[in-house]
Amino acid sequence: MAEASEALDRVMVIGAHPDDPEFGCAGTVVKWAQAGKEITYVLLTSGDKGSADPDLRPGRLAAQREEEQRAAAQELGVERVIFLRYADGLLENTMELRRRLCEVIRQHRPHIVLTIDPWRPYQLHPDHRAAGQAALDAIYAAREWYIFPEQLVQDVVPWRVKEVYLFWTHDADYYEDISASIDARIAALARHTSQVGTDVEKLSERIRHHAHQTGETAGCEYAEGFKRFQF
Ligand SMILES: [Zn+2]
To answer: How many A from CA of 17 to the centre of ligand 1?
Structure first.
C-alpha cells in the first residue's frame, strides 16, 4: 500500500455524548461525507444523565439519545455509529477505555480523527476532558506494535492515524468553510430533541451566531475551527 499517496478518506469522530459531533464539527462532517469520505462516529457514553426530569429512567433516556444520534448521523451521511456505553457523567480516561478505543481504531483504520480538545482552558465537563484525552492516547497506542499486542491477531496490525482535528478548541489553527453545510448541521442538531427542545429557530440562531464569529476569523460566512495535527 502506497501510504504517501493514499487518500485520507476514512474519518472517525470520537465524542463523549450523543450530540457532541453535531455541536462540535457536523458542518465539516457533512461536507466531507458529500465529498466521498467514509465517516464513523464513536460515542463513549449514551448520554443517559442528560435530563433534568427525575422521572425519566436513565436506560430509557440512553435509548432515546442513541436513536436521536442515529437519526442525526443519517441526516449527515455518516456511515456508522458505534456506542461504547460508558456511564454518562462519570467518564474517566482509564487504561480499559484506552484499550477499547485503540481496538476500535485498529479495526476501522481511520486516516483522520476528530475529537474534543481536552486542553481547552476551563473545559469544565469531565466527560469532555476524558473523551479527548482518551482518544488521543488511543491514537498513540494504536500505532505501536507492543501496546495492546493481544489485539494484533489475524488481519489486525498497528494503525497510524494521519491527521487529528480537535474541536471546541481555543487554539484553532485550521478552519473549514461550512457556509454550504450549516443548514444540514442545524437539521442534524434538531434531531437531538431531548437536548435542544423543539425551538429550531432559537437553536439555528445560536449555531449561526457562533459559526459566523468563527467565519470572521476564517474569512468566510460560516466556519468551524480546529486545532490540527498532521503525523
Ligand atoms: Zn457532550
So the answer is: 5
